[in-house]
Amino acid sequence: MSTPSTAKSPKETVQGGAATPEVQTFDPRHFHAQAHDALNNPQIRGNFRSAMDGLMRKRRDVFAEWDLETLRQLGANVRARALARLPDLLEQLERNCQANGIQVHWAENGDEACRIIRKLCESRGARRMIKGKSMVSEEMHLNAHLEAAGVEALESDLGEYLVQMAHETPSHIIMPAIHKNTGEIADLMHDKTGIARTLDADTLTAAARAQLRERFLTADVGLSGVNFAVAETGTLCLVENEGNGRLTTTVPPMHIAVTGIEKVVEHLQDVAPLYALLTRSATGQPVTTYFNMISGPRKSEEHDGPQEVHLVLVDNGRSRIYQDDELLDTLRCIRCGACMNHCPVYTRVGGHTYGTTYPGPIGKILMPHLLGLEATRDLPSASSLCGACGEVCPVKIPIPDLLVRLRKESVGEGRGNVPGAGIKRNAKEVAAWKSWQWLATHPAFWRLGTGAAGRFRRLSPGHLPPWTDYRVAPKPASKTLHAMMRERCRTESDS
Amino acid sequence: MTPVKLYPAKPEKVYLFGTCLIDLFYPEAGMDVVHLLEREGIEVIYPDDQTCCGQPAYTSGYHDEARAVAAAQLDLFPEPWPIIVPSGSCGGMMRTHYAQLFADSERQAQAEEVASRVFELTEFLVHVCHVRLVDRGEPQRLAMHTSCSARREMGLAETGPQLLQQLSNVTLVEQARAAECCGFGGTFAVRHPEVSAAMVADKGAAIEAAEAEHFVTSDCGCLMNIDGHLQHERRALRGEHIASYLWRRTA
Description:
The structure holds two protein chains of two kinds.
Chain A: H1 31-39, H2 42-63, H3 68-84, H4 86-99, E1 102-107, H5 110-123, E2 128-131, H6 135-139, H7 142-148, E3 152-155, H8 158-165, H9 182-193, H10 201-218, E4 221-224, E5 228-230, E6 235-240, H11 244-250, E7 254-260, E8 264-265, H12 271-283, E9 290-294, E10 308-314, H13 318-322, H14 338-341, H15 344-349, H16 360-371, H17 388-392, H18 399-410, H19 427-440, H20 443-455, H21 467-470, H22 481-494
Helix pairs in contact in A: 2-12, 16-18
Chain B: E1 13-16, H1 20-24, H2 27-39, E2 43-45, H3 55-59, H4 63-74, E3 83-85, H5 88-101, H6 108-116, E4 118-120, H7 121-128, E5 140-145, H8 148-153, H9 159-164, E6 170-173, H10 188-191, H11 193-209, E7 214-217, H12 220-232, E8 239-241, H13 242-250
Helix pairs in contact in B: 2-13, 5-6, 11-12
């Protein structure tokens, strides 16, 4: 994207005609301040902790009977094979979609994709769009763009619907409203839709359903994402639980599917392992309630389905990632969210803290390519490299290695393939590491230095912020291991 | 993540790579490693010119600097003896990342050869020494925090607990979310101090909630973090390196 800002403009949506709300905006440049706020918000801490604990448990249980390692390797191979042939597969996808009657559009960036979608809406004089869940549409801020063009876009995924109603952004790629507990949702629904306040999830869901059902029937356009685009058949696969995806893609006269170019797979049979991995990794479900395979518009003899189906293939920085054989692994992602569910940092700071469309570990390795390393300067370092994300990734993206790679790019020791490379290089830090290097490659001086630290240990600083804000300062031992081992050798040779 | 490893027979000699944290802050733990290995009839060679594995610079993105320091370590282990590292973090660096660091360089073969001889201490005691421990200590409830590098990078979630379970008077308790990071992460603790602090506070509380009287770690980074936090909060619970605990109870 040309502009690194992710701040959302305040917007009135269709919900209940409430007064202009206060919009909480998050920006990756303010990661530290946003983390501070989240860490000190017991509601946020509690909501994420309990939600992530549940998701981790469900995933573990649902995979218990599986040879997970083999399945993950298969998933990784399927995705790697697709990426290896990406240019060919995209052309094949286009041909086969066109043969099926799906019109294919290419967008170099988010703005271009927004323009294409707006023009498609204008071509039918559309005023009302119903949306299935699409993170790519979040990435390009489609709703704001359409609103400016006079098209109301209503989110129909329950989580997205709540987030839109609250004038917020998703805090998780699978569960957009995971930062809210039932009480907060009850308040929100009461305030915005006028229903009686209730903590009963079924009543809340029924109220949302009633409102959405009417909108499915009256929408001019339905917009959805794509989970897998099958090149050999020109089929668009959509994974969902609420049936909103099916209604979005079948009821309105026009269906627009929007996806990143990396979502293509080669064969129909490639979908099986990826789907098996996706639902289990994401929500611990062996299968979702709905799995849609969209293969074109309504045929002349058919009574339902959209009259037009469009596929918008969005690059938005992905082709640049594609050119680097290490960074390429980033594009294997099938957007299950398991990395964030298992991330000790995400669990504590929540999704909004990242200030990016994709939060958590996948966000940390993807967003620097989309927004540049200047805007995302604190993201690659916001990991203890504990490896939990890489351990659960269903397509074996080496997330910790990619974080290290982005750190390398940040300090100007990489290949320069990421926008903003070298942004964090500063003379002071370089000098510190060069000094460390010199000492650690001159063992005699190393021993002299560490030995002196021990001899003068009384002088060692007890106040070393930020370490000592939360911990005591480590004190050098009076004798180093080097010194002890030397003494030992002497004693042994003397005796 | 870790390929199948075929372990060698118990050798006559090993190298000890002590790690910089043990060298400077916890040398007694290093000596306890020596005692444990010598009791197994193994001679321990400690190359005097060792300094640091290079990991702090590596994880910070300063790979040129890390490579220079790692190169200096590669020359210290000329004989084909196993290299024992009492840290999953430094062990993981040497076993996994040395090969990446020296890929396509003239040191690639050497780096891969050295990496293939690197063993984390508890791994070596369990899988190579097949150590049998006789507990001489008082009954105690103990928790273990296995470092993320040992657990995930080296695939050694089990070896530490396997050793501790041999101690007949020790009740090994497992804290909630045992596999979760303690928040150290090297420079992470300094670059993101508040997030790191939230993580270590939770870790300390979980170990306390398991009613452990004492805890051990296989990494001095985690130890410095968790124990340092508990001391800062004036809590009674203390920890130590697993080598010291094993030696103290079985000597």
